[in-house]
Write a structure and sequence with these properties.
mainly alpha
Length: about 100
């Protein structure tokens, strides 16, 4: 059975064909996302970020990577957190850590 709105060779929708109706209202992801935002307070987020920063300062490389990826800039593939690379990064983004 062939779909008149699709290309026979690639299966892609043809130009001008809208495709499907999309995801139904109230999808599982939307429900979970709403529950998360209702359960987590700004105080919780601050505590989590503070503990991540503390772990990074203690030498936890995964915590440092997460902080840098999310709040500073995504590290280029293959770049590690050596002092030399941190100096290069400091030249791009001023790193001013509070103790």
């Amino acid at each position: 059975m062939t779909d008149p709105g699709r290309d026979r060779t690639t299966g892609r929708f043809l130009k001008g064909c809208k495709g499907g109706p999309g995801a139904p209202q109230g999808t599982r992801r939307q429900v979970l996302s709403t529950a998360f935002y209702e359960a987590v307070t700004p105080k919780d987020v601050k505590a989590i970020v503070t503990s991540l920063i503390f772990a990074a300062k203690k030498g936890d490389g995964k915590a440092a990577q997460l902080i840098l990826d999310r709040f500073v800039a995504k590290m280029p593939p293959g770049m590690d957190l050596s002092d030399e690379n941190l100096e290069k990064l400091d030249g791009i983004v001023h790193l001013d850590f509070k103790d």
